[in-house]
Amino acid sequence: MTSLLSHQISLAFFVSFILFFASTSSNEERKVYIVYMGAQHSSQYPTYELHLNLLKEILVNCSPSESLVYSYQRSFSGFAAKLSMDEAEKLSEMEGIVSVFRSKTLKLHTTRSWDFLNFPQKVNKNPILESDVIIGMIDSGIWPESKSFNDQGLRPPPRKWKGHGTHTASTAAGRTVSHASLYGLAKGTARGGVPLARLAIYKVCWSFGCTDPDILAAFDDAISDGVDIISLSVGHSTAADYFRDSIAIGSFHAMANGILTSTSAGNAGPYHGTVDNVAPWMLVAAASSIDRHIIDKVVTEDHVSTLVRSFCQHICEKNRDDYPLFYLQGNATTSPGDCTALPDINMVKGKIVLCKYFSDEIFSTGIKGLIYIDDSSLDVSYLYPVPFITVSSLNGLNLLSYINNTKNPVANIHKSEEVFDSEAPLVASFSSRGPNTITPDILKPDISAPGIDILAAWSRVAPVSGIINDTRVLAKFLILILSCMLYTAKPMYPSAGQDELSYGAGQLNPVKAVHPGLVYDAGASDYVQMLCNSGYNETMIRIVTGDASSCSARNNGTARDLNYPSMALHVQSGKAFAAKFLRTVTNVGCARRCRYKAEVWAHHRLNVVVNPSKLKFSELKEKRQFTVSVSGRSLPGNSTVPATIIWSDGKHQVRSVMVVYTDYTDFFS
C-alpha cells in the first residue's frame, strides 16, 4: 500500500511539474490554457470526446490527445490543454465556451486558536452529525500518520462519500492531541474545530506552487465525491474576473451543489485592494493574531537587547555562544545590506548576518544566524534553518551603529519564549486587504480568523522551515497560518492600518454561529441575479449554470442588491452620496412569535436609516424584507467610514457591518 501511494504521489508530482513547466517556459510555443465551458450539458458526445473534438477543430500540427492535459467532466465541463495563442483565441470564439485563459501558478497562503475564540473542547455537539461532515481540503497534501488524523473510535464513513494538507487539515478537523508543542513552544492541546469530521485531501500544491488545472481538477473531484465543505488557502497574486479564476469557477459549482468554499484573503498585505479571493459565493477569511506572542531577543556585546517577534527554540538552545556580527556595507554594484549578492560566502561563514534583503541560498553558506530588517512583518514569527529574527528599521540602525563603532562586534540570538498579548485580535500585516477590486460593493474579506503562530500537525518528512537544507524534520506540530469556515463574527475596532476593509465583519465566533436567530439566505439564483446586475450577459450565464437562468427585469439593479450579510459602498471622493441596500432575513431562532428591533450605530459622516425598524415573525423559516438607506456629504480620498446594524429580539443579536469607502492611493503598491 505504501509503495502504491508513493507511486501515485510521484506520478502526481510529475504531472504537476509538467504543468508548471509548460505554463511558465518561454521556449515552448504552446502553453497550458484553461477552457471553461460551464455546467455539464447534454450532448451527442460524452464530455471527454466533446473536448477532444473541439481540440481537433483548432489544433495545427498537434494531436488532441497530445494537447489535452485535463478533461473536467464530473461536476462541470471544461478542459486544460497545451495551446498556441492563436489556437486559444479560436477556441474562445466558439459557441459554448465561457472563457479561455492561461494557466497560472498560485501560491499557498500559508491550538490555542480555538480556545482564544471561546470554542471549548467539550462544547455540546452532535457526534453522529459531526462525523457525517466531509471536509474537502485542497492544498499541499497530508501526513496521515499524524496523531491528529487518528481514526480510532470513528463511525463508518457516511454512504454519500464516494471519495478517495496536513497543517490546514488538522486545524479544521484534527483529532485532539494533548501535550502538543513545537520544540517546547505553544504547549497545549492541538485540536480541530470538528475533530470527528471526515477529511478528503486533494493535493494540488508542490514546492513550485499550485497550478490552475490541478485546482479545477480538485474541485471537479471534490464536488462529485460528495464533500460538504471545501477549504483551501491558495490564491493568485491579484483578483481576477470570476470566470477567468479557477477558484471562483470551482467554488461557483460547489455553491450550486450546496457546498461552502472557505478560503483565505491572501498574503499581500498591508496594502489595500490586495485580497485575491473575492467571489461572493466564497467565505474569505483574513488572518489575525491570538493572545499568544512568540518573542525573541538579540543581545550584543555591549548588552544592548532588542526584543522582537521570532521563533528560535531548538537551534538557539544549541547556539549559546556569541558570534561575529556582519553587515555588507555595499559598493558600486551592491546595495548596503543586500545579502543576495555576496561576493564571497566566506565573508559570512560562522557569523550572524544583518540583512535588508536575502534569499534561501544564504542558509547554505554556514551562517550562524540572520537578523532581517523589515518594518512590514514585525508581527510574524518565521522559521528558518538558522536562528532568525526580524527587526524594525530603527532597531536595524541601532545594530548598524553598534557594528560601525565596534572593532569586533558580536551578537547572540536567544531562545524564544511566549508572552500574553492583550491587544489581540489584530489583523496580520501580511493579510491581504480589501476593497474587492472585481465587485467593489461586496465586502471582502468577510471575517477575520486566527492566522499567526497557529500550532497544527506537520509532516514528519517535510523540513520544518521548508528550506531544502533544513534537517529538522522531527516536529509533529508546526506554527503556520489558519483559515476557518464559520459565519458569525465579534466586533473588531479600527486602529492604525486596520478597519473593515482589513477584517470584514470582525473576528469569527463559532459558538454564536450555532444559534444565529436570523440568517441572510442567498442561493444560486441570487448569485445569478448579481452577475446580471454586474454586466454578465444572459447567454454566458446560461452556459455557466446549465439551466434556463435569465436576467430578469430587475437587472437594472446593482451588485449590492445581493442578499449579503455585510454592506459595502464605493463612492467617489469629494462628492455627496446616497444608496440603498435591500435585504431579506429568515427566522431560524423562534418557533412562535418574536419581534426584532433594529439598532443602528453610524460614523458621524453617515446618515443610516433602516425601514422598517421592527420585524415580526410568527413561525420558523418566515422571511421579512427591510431596506437600509445610507447617505452623506463628500468624503476625502483614502477614507473608510463604518456603520453597524443590529437586529435584536432580546436573546439574539444579528449584526451586519456597513462600510463606505473612497479610492485608496496604496492600491497594489
Helix content: 10-25%
Report the strand count: 37
Quickly count the helices: 14
Mean pLDDT: 78
If you compute it from the alpha carbons, what radius of gyration comes out, rounded to the nearest whole angstrom? Answer: 26 Å
Shape: globular
Please summarize the sheet with the most strands. 8 strands, mixed
* Unreliable parts: 1-15, 21-28, 111-121, 164-193, 454-467, 470-480, 482-487
Distance from N terminus to C terminus (CA atoms, Å) equals 49 Å
Question: What portion of the residues fall into strands of 2 or more residues?
Answer: 25-35%
Alpha-beta content class: alpha+beta
InterPro entries: Peptidase_S8/S53_dom, Peptidase_S8/S53_dom_sf, S8pro/Inhibitor_I9, S8pro/Inhibitor_I9_sf, SBT, Subtilisin-like_FN3
Pfam family, one: fn3_6
GO molecular function, one term: serine-type endopeptidase activity
Keywords: Hydrolase, Protease, Serine protease, Signal
Describe the structure.
With 669 residues, this protein is α+β, with helices and mostly antiparallel strands. It is 19% helix and 29% strand. It is globular and about 80 Å long.
Short description:
The chain is α+β, with helices and mostly antiparallel strands and 669 residues long. It contains 14 helices and 37 strands. It is globular, with a radius of gyration of 26 Å.
